[in-house]
Specification:
- By secondary structure, the protein is mostly helical.
- The protein has two helices and no strands.
Length: 92
């Protein structure tokens, strides 16, 4: 009969351990789902940013095209290519 109080205490302790474990499991699952949703949002953002980066590279390529730069230099700035006699070549 002296073992009975120990068994009751052990049963109560094990009940609390099981409940704490169950609560921990639920909390961990919730955190995992939140992090997964955040990960998916970040992946979508990466795709969007990569697309924008590609578009910006194409735009930069178009704006810096040599023929475009030369045309604008001639039209807006009145620049012309120098004649051969106006050029001086310097040897190092």
């Amino acid at each position: 009969m002296s073992d009975r109080p120990h068994l009751v205490v052990l049963a109560i302790f094990l009940t609390f351990v099981v409940l704490a474990s169950a609560i921990g499991l639920v909390y961990t699952k919730h955190q995992t789902r939140k992090l997964f949703v955040e990960l998916e949002q970040l992946r979508k953002e990466v795709v969007s940013l990569n697309t924008e980066w590609g578009q910006l590279q194409l735009e930069q390529s178009a704006w810096s095209d040599q023929s475009r730069v030369e045309r604008i230099a001639r039209e807006r700035l009145g620049m012309v290519s120098p004649e051969a006699e106006q050029m001086a070549f310097i040897k190092p």
